[in-house]
Each structure stands twice: as structure tokens, then as C-alpha cells.
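Key result, reporting period 2: structure in, sequence out.
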């Protein structure tokens, strides 16, 4: 059953609902990433495997970034949707989704890789506590509130409204930021601040590959938030990708 928009809910309650609805997959991805980080520093075998991934990323450069972003942000979530919520049946909507999500996440992933490389230039490719903290602050309290969250919400509202211009007109209003961007940020920070601490604790060449591993979860969370804003799902819906359309 779907409910209409619930304008009486505060940004904090919306953000909390999203974090709570996605708590289990968030915990799984955080623990998985923590396991990889621990393995990198304590297991020569894990470190060697991750180093091979880093070398592959260096060798293929932008092509790796683009392909990894598309697979993690567009293809994997769509496969998940087909397998778990469409009983394995592919329909035209899946191809429409991919026509939208492939360029969006290819572009977004390219910007993230550029930011990681820029921060390595500014602060250094080292894993000290001050450097990690500085990178998290730029990422989560600069890039995220001023670009990543507004861009993500805007693109998925375009998708939900069939590329209407209304989301563009609303984009620069305080009401839009308070009611949609702020709750998205609150839900995002609960997941991504711990993840960024893990990602920035690794060398630069491994930061984007590990970001790509977590990107599918970000798509799940963003889909949940934008469908909540559109009134397409219940406040306590258990899994965001169940509502993608």
C-alpha cells in the first residue's frame, strides 16, 4: 500500500526513517568494508589481492572508473530489482531505468574519482588521522551538501516526474533543501561517514574501487528517499529498491 506525501514529518524524522529502513544493508556494507580494510593491513594475501585491483585501476584509468560506476550504480541495483521484486522477469521499465541510471552514475562516479585525486593532491596520499579527518570533512560537509545530495535528489525526481522542470525550479529554494536535501543528508551521513573513514584509510589507488563497492547501497538509499518524497512508499518500507520504478 502506498501513502501520499507526509508533509508534517520533519527532515530529522524523514532522515531517521531512511536510515532505519536501510539499517541492515548499511551494517552489512560497513562490516564488509571494515573487513577489507582490516585484511589489507593484517593479511598479506588480502593486501596482495587489493594491490592487484589498485594496479588494474591505475592501468585502465578513466575506463575503469566509468565502467565500475555504471556496474555498481546502475546495473547491480537493476539486477537486484529484477531478481527480488520482479521474480526474475525483465520488462521495458528495466531498460528505461538503465537509460536513465547509466549516464547519471557514470558522470557521478567520474566526479568522485576526480575529488579523491584532488584531495590526495591537497592533503597528501597518506593515512594519518588529521588527513583522513580533513578528507572526510571536505567530502561529507562540502561536496555532499553542496553537490552530491542535491544532484542525486534532482536526478531521481526527474526520473519520478518524467523529466519535469519543476524539480529544477525548486532546486535553489530553502524549502526544497530543508524538506528533501537535509533528510537525505542525515540518512547519508549515518552510512557514509563511517564508510569514508574506511575508504580514506587506504591508498588513493584503492579508494575509488572501494567506493564502487559501496555505491550500490547509496543508490538504494537515494531511491528510498526520493520515493518517500514522491509519496510512493510507506514511511517504514523495509527496503528501498523494492520501490524503484
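The corresponding designed sequence is given below.
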Amino acid at each position: 500500500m502506498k501513502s501520499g506525501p507526509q508533509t508534517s514529518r520533519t527532515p530529522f524524522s524523514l532522515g531517521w526513517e531512511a536510515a532505519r529502513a536501510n539499517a541492515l544493508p548499511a551494517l552489512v556494507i560497513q562490516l564488509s568494508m571494515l573487513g577489507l580494510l582490516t585484511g589489507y593491513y593484517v593479511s598479506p594475501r588480502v593486501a596482495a589481492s587489493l594491490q592487484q585491483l589498485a594496479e588494474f585501476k591505475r592501468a585502465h584509468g578513466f575506463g575503469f572508473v566509468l565502467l565500475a560506476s555504471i556496474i555498481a550504480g546502475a546495473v547491480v541495483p537493476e539486477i537486484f530489482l529484477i531478481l527480488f521484486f520482479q521474480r526474475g522477469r525483465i520488462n521495458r521499465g528495466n531498460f528505461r531505468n538503465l537509460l536513465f541510471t547509466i549516464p547519471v552514475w557514470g558522470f557521478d562516479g567520474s566526479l568522485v574519482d576526480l575529488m579523491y585525486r584532488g584531495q590526495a593532491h591537497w592533503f597528501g596520499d597518506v593515512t594519518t588521522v588529521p588527513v583522513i579527518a580533513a578528507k572526510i570533512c571536505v567530502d561529507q560537509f562540502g561536496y555532499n551538501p553542496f553537490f552530491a545530495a542535491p544532484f542525486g535528489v534532482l536526478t531521481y525526481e526527474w526520473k519520478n516526474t518524467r523529466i519535469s522542470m519543476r524539480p529544477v525550479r525548486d532546486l535553489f529554494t530553502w524549502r526544497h533543501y530543508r524538506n528533501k536535501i537535509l533528510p537525505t543528508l542525515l540518512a547519508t551521513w549515518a552510512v557514509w561517514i563511517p564508510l569514508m573513514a574506511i575508504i580514506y584509510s587506504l591508498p588513493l589507488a584503492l579508494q575509488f574501487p572501494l567506493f564502487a563497492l559501496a555505491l550500490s547501497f547509496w543508490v538504494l538509499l537515494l531511491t528510498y528517499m526520493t520515493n518517500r518524497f514522491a509519496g510512493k512508499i510507506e514511511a517504514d518500507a523495509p527496503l528501498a529498491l523494492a520501490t524503484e520504478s
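The chain is about 80% helix and 0% strand. Helices lie at 11-21, 23-42, 44-85, 92-123, 129-160, 166-170, 174-199, 204-229. This case is discussed further under Risks and Mitigation.
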